[in-house]
# Entry
Amino acid sequence: DVKVTQSSRYLVKRTGEKVFLECVQDMDHENMFWYRQDPGLGLRLIYFSYDVKMKEKGDIPEGYSVSREKKERFSLILESASTSQTSMYLCASSFPHGTVVEQYFGPGTRLTVT
Amino acid sequence: AQSVTQLDSHVSVSEGTPVLLRCNYSSSYSPSLFWYVQHPNKGLQLLLKYTSAATLVKGINGFEAEFKKSETSFHLTKPSAHMSDAAEYFCVVTPSSNTGKLIFGQGTTLQVKP
# Structure
């Protein structure tokens, strides 16, 4: 079974703090993704990565950065957390695009910024 | 541009009655389509996927969906709801750029009453 793990299930941080969210997958997937999930808005893509050291902006990259130093690990960084970044964050991974590109998701990190 | 619209934000059914969750998509080519389910405090799990083979797709837990190109719809159905089906459901489409990215609908919360 594919396993995608996220470092924390719940996280509480203060405004202005630097926040790191870690994601690890064990299926040797090339692609990795970070989403945020908010009620009524579905999942919105923040950043994604096709390979080590490669990253591309998604639909809502403002206020976030990412790092991918190893194939299995993809980190989301909030440089200076704000209350508007309180959300559920989901990591996903997949093989490179082919006939069908399903993504495998981690359990999520619920981040609260106070 | 590709998009997906889930027509109901909330659906309530009684246990043992049929489930219908509606999804319309917009695509300029033949898309791949998915339904994902998210149980409370869990990550997303793939229910089923359409990949231009059979238009009626069977998934896990008795769910199925029918791809109707003429109606640009991919509605999710189940003949008889169980209490364990209570969750949030997302209809998802692949964009034309075939980058491995997914476009998510806003989600439908399914409530199952005893």
Remarks:
- The two ends of chain B are 41 Å apart (CA to CA).
- The first strand of chain B starts at residue 3 and ends at 6.
